[in-house]
Design goal:
The structure holds two protein chains of two kinds.
Chain A (H helix, E strand, L loop, with lengths): L5 H6 L1 H9 L21 H5 L5 E2 L17 E5 H15 L4 E4 L14 H5 L4 E3 L4 H13 L4 E4 L10 H8 L2 H4 L9 E7 L14 H4 L6 E3 L4 H13 L4 E6 L2 H4 L1 E5 L3 E2 L6 E4 L4 E5 L3 H13 L18 E5 L2 E3 L3 H11 L2 E8 L4 H12 L9 E5 L9 H4 L3 H12 L2
Parallel strand pairs in A: 3-4, 3-5, 5-6, 6-8, 7-8, 12-13, 12-15, 15-16
Antiparallel strand pairs in A: 1-10, 2-9, 7-14, 11-13
Chain B lengths: L8 H17 L49 H26 L13 H10 L5 E3 L5 H6 L4 H9 L23 E2 L8 H13 L10 E6 L6 H12 L4 E7 L2 E2 L2 E2 L19 E6 L3 H18 L3 E6 L18 H10 L2 H11 L5 H24 L2 E3 L14 H17 L4 H7 L2 E2 L3 H4 L1
Parallel strand pairs in B: 1-2, 1-3, 3-4, 4-8, 7-8, 9-10
Antiparallel strand pairs in B: 5-6
Helix pairs in contact in B: 2-3, 2-10, 2-11, 3-8, 5-11, 6-7
Classes of the chains: A alpha/beta, B alpha/beta.
Chain lengths: 408, 438
């Protein structure tokens, strides 16, 4: 079992607690999403989520970090997303939620009960037109209102690419700041789900990374989803909020029930380390966690493959959280300390987000790098249905990349 | 969702009739379509149905046509219409030539569409939200956007309130005049207008009072966003008035290659919205049609479509020579035979509201105003160079933009005075670009 550095143990009490109390089952099963120590299963841990900023009813009172008196509730990711939208609708009368099939609760249950609670004028179905949904949202936000639009799968966001890249991203700039669509948030389920095939699996964040003017955010868990979504809805810029769909039901945390936000544009160090920086976002956060476990305490069959001298390596695991703008400072600081970087994402490698980050980190950390920056990504193929296990950046591919980089 | 009852008589009739049928037969679960035993295809153009008619008030020489009703209009209002119609070609002529001299980079005239644009502008309330394509400068002028404002945008000088010199000429915008900033991608404003209309409906002090008015050409109506927009403003009922300027050409493509149906108007009923086709060269017909369309928009809270038929007398833009794809004589004939400005002038003369002296005085005054503004705009500097990097994001500027701004500053410090293309260019900016170095 890998040991956690002191710094992390203070920051992640729940993680320590669970690591110490729950020994891996016989046979060395890897942690899954359900058993992840990254998820915060106690109220205390949930309320101590880093950078969590409470937004209390009294808007004029300063935000507070007081934990006492706060409650949490066990939620999965779709419930946390729903909770965030419910708060946004309750506190902002101009806010509306719309998209395909959102009125009955949404195909992933993210809008359950919102239409009944807030009325069909505020939570409504649109005809089946992605360019229309985003165009409508742009117009609604142009009037200073809050538009929370849903694209049913990130795979279907491309018909709206023009409205997002040419319109939403550029309106503030082209109008000299006189118009803006800061009230626009596009929510969309993303990443692979086990059997999604070509068009229910994609990770298109890289296509939007060059669309300066947009923000792109991807949470890893229920607490993150709620805080980052509320932050996205209230951010003065159009935000694409990509929700890893495999986490909707599988990732469960104690989530604070009050209104709170997490900051956009900031990565989070989940596990501190000194030997290598492992950077990822969304679903692969859990593959990375499994890979670290595999590295430190490999099951019997894998032991011949996991170099003994590398098992005690201290790997720093970072969740990027925001793709655009991304937190270069945290990543560069980490890599300058560790000298090694492995980037993991589900999207294909060529011109993916990892390419941008590699180039920038190579520039900033050139003298400190002890090994080439490695990328573990989906292959440059579409996501083929029956081949998914060999397509995604699975734990074994990650651990291999980590070992290759450590022993370079 | 609020679904307003369709008030159009023919629809109401169809609905009540078919409801009875389907109740009795219960054959089609999601349609009220009556069942028939005779196999019959239909088509709005080549079938038995005739073409959608074009509404007109004045004939080609300004006389009221038989049975037509004049819209409510007095002498002062008529003067205002005419002045604005005349201002358009005055500005167009000067700016077109200014572009030809290389003083501005681009321009698009509105020759031939003066009645469509000014008639529409005059029928809208001043605070109706307008989303245009690019040939609708006349709406802004009607609302008090000044000739200096026009020049500032086209020259991209420091007074450009539309966009700080960032967009190409004729991409105007002004929140004060409820005119959303023009962008080049065609038809993107059409679904946006549905969202604007819906927002107006959700704004207590504007509900039942303001509409979104959206202009586009017949070419843009071929984009998917046209389909999306009209469908959205119809199914998510939004007070959105769609005004199609059918001027016969999308750059070089004649409308015969743009669609095989009965123009744009024939599509409106498919979306379940009230639709009318109007003679876009008859300012009074446009005025009446848009006033009534606007009223229906508010009454039904749903989209309405107006197709205004005109002819693009001008080249598409300064980058286009339209005689490459249409004969010069066709254009010249059109200007003479069916000129919207002449038609309205003759009407005003018949009312005793206008004469040759007034015409000479107006033309001289407009020309002088435009030339004065042009000469002034020419001397103004551009905005500060550092505006290159602002307004990409609201809130704090992200690191990548801060760094790129610093990088340009570094390069300017090093090469700014020695590299001629930059030195000459820097002199055109306010503070000569020094603001970026601070």
């Amino acid at each position: 079992m890998f040991s956690l550095p002191f710094k992390a143990s203070r920051r992640f009490p729940s993680l320590i607690c669970r690591s110490n109390s729950t020994a891996p089952p016989a046979g060395g099963h890897l942690p899954s999403i359900a058993t992840s120590t990254i998820l915060r299963s106690t109220r205390e841990a949930a309320l101590r989520t880093p950078w969590l900023r409470w937004l209390d009813d009294n808007a004029s009172s300063p935000s507070t970090v007081i934990v006492g008196g706060r409650e949490t509730r066990k939620m999965n990711t779709y419930q946390a997303v729903r909770d965030a939208m419910s708060i946004a609708l309750a506190k902002d009368d101009s806010a509306v939620v719309f998209g395909e099939d959102v009125a009955f609760g949404g195909v992933f249950r993210c809008t359950m009960g919102l239409a009944e609670e807030f009325g069909r004028e505020r939570v409504f179905n649109t005809p089946l037109t992605e360019q229309g949904i985003v165009g409508f949202g742009v117009g609604f936000a142009l009037m200073g209102h809050t538009a929370i639009a849903e694209i049913q799968f990130a795979d279907y966001i491309f018909p709206a690419f023009d409205q997002l890249v040419n319109e939403a991203a550029k309106i503030r700039y082209r109008s000299g700041g006189t118009f803006n669509v800061g009230g626009l948030t596009i929510r969309t389920p993303t990443m692979s789900v086990g059997h999604g095939g070509l068009y229910h699996s994609q990770s298109p964040e890289g296509f939007f990374m060059g669309a300066s003017g947009l923000k792109v955010v991807i949470p890893r868990s229920p607490i993150q989803a709620k805080g980052l979504l509320l932050g996205s809805i209230r951010d003065p810029n159009p935000v694409i909020f990509m929700e890893p769909k495999v986490l909707y039901r599988s990732a469960v945390e104690q989530v604070p029930i009050d209104d709170y936000e997490l900051p956009l544009g900031r990565a989070e160090i989940l596990v501190s380390g000194t030997d290598l920086t492992l950077l990822t976002w969304g679903t692969p956060v859990y593959h990375c966690e499994a890979a670290l476990h595999m590295l430190s305490s490999p099951e019997a069959a894998l032991q011949p493959h996991i170099t003994a001298s590398l098992r005690s390596a201290k790997v720093e695991l970072i969740d990027l959280r925001s793709i655009l703008p991304w937190d270069v400072e945290t990543i560069a600081e980490s890599v300058n300390r560790t000298g090694r970087l492995v980037i993991v994402h589900e999207a294909g490698m060529t011109a993916g987000v990892g390419a941008e980050i590699s180039a920038e980190i190579q520039k900033r950390c050139f003298l400190k790098l002890d090994a080439p920056i490695k990328r573990v990504t989906g292959w440059d193929t579409p996501v083929a249905l029956q081949y998914e296990k060999f397509h995604i950046p699975d734990a074994i591919r990650i651990v291999d990349a980590v070992m290759e980089t450590l022993s370079y | 969702m609020i679904r307003t009852f369709i008030t159009a008589p023919h629809r109401a009739h169809t609905r009540s009739f078919s409801t009875t049928i389907s109740r009795r037969q219960q054959i089609l679960p999601k349609s009220n379509s009556p069942i028939v035993s005779k196999l019959e295809f239909f088509n709005s153009v080549t079938g038995s149905s005739s073409l959608i008619p074009t509404y007109r008030v004045l004939d080609g020489v300004g006389n009221l046509i038989h049975g037509a009703e004049l819209p409510q209009i007095d002498k002062a209002f008529a003067h205002r219409l005419y002045e604005n119609m005349q201002l358009l070609p005055t500005l167009d002529t000067v700016l077109y030539n200014v572009q030809r001299q290389g003083k501005i980079s681009f321009y698009m005239t509105a020759y031939g569409e003066e009645a469509t644009i000014i008639g529409s502008a005059a029928a809208l309330e001043m605070d109706d939200e307008v989303l245009g394509q690019y040939r609708e400068m006349g709406v802004l002028l009607w609302r008090g956007f000044t000739i200096d404002d026009v020049m500032a945008q086209c020259f991209g000088n420091e007074e450009d309130g539309s966009g700080k010199g960032r967009q190409m000429p004729v991409h105007f915008g002004s929140p004060k005049h409820h005119f959303h900033t023009i962008s080049s991608p065609l038809a993107t404003q059409i679904p946006q207008a549905a969202g604007v209309g819906y927002a107006l409906k959700r704004t207590p002090d504007r509900r039942s009072r303001s509409i979104a008015a959206c202009f586009f050409g017949e070419g843009a109506a071929s984009e998917g966003d046209f389909h999306a927009g009209l469908m959205l403003a119809s199914t998510i009922p939004s007070p959105t008035l769609y005004i199609a300027r059918n001027n016969g050409f999308a750059i070089s493509t004649p409308s015969t290659e743009q669609y095989n149906g009965d123009g744009i108007a024939s599509r409106g009923p498919g979306y379940g919205i009230d639709t009318v086709r109007v003679d876009g060269n008859d300012v009074l017909a446009v005025l009446s049609a848009i006033r009534e369309a606007r009223r229906r928009c508010l009454e039904q809270g749903r989209a309405v479509l107006v197709e205004a038929m005109s002819y693009r007398v001008s080249h598409h833009s300064t980058s286009d020579d339209s005689f490459a794809y249409r004969p010069r004589t066709e254009v010249e004939d059109h200007k003479k035979v069916d000129n919207p400005i002449t038609r309205f002038r003759l009407f005003m003369e018949s009312q005793g509201w206008w004469n040759a002296d007034a015409e000479i005085e107006l033309k001289a005054r407009l020309k002088e105003d435009v030339m004065k503004a042009f000469k002034r705009a020419e001397t103004l500097k551009r905005a500060e160079l550092s505006e290159l990097f602002t307004d990409v994001y609201g809130g704090e500027q992200p690191w990548h933009l801060k760094e790129q701004r610093a990088e340009l500053a570094r390069l300017l410090r090093k090469y700014g005075s020695d590299y001629e293309p930059w030195r000459k260019e820097l002199a055109k900016f306010k503070n000569n670009g020094r603001d970026l170095l601070d």
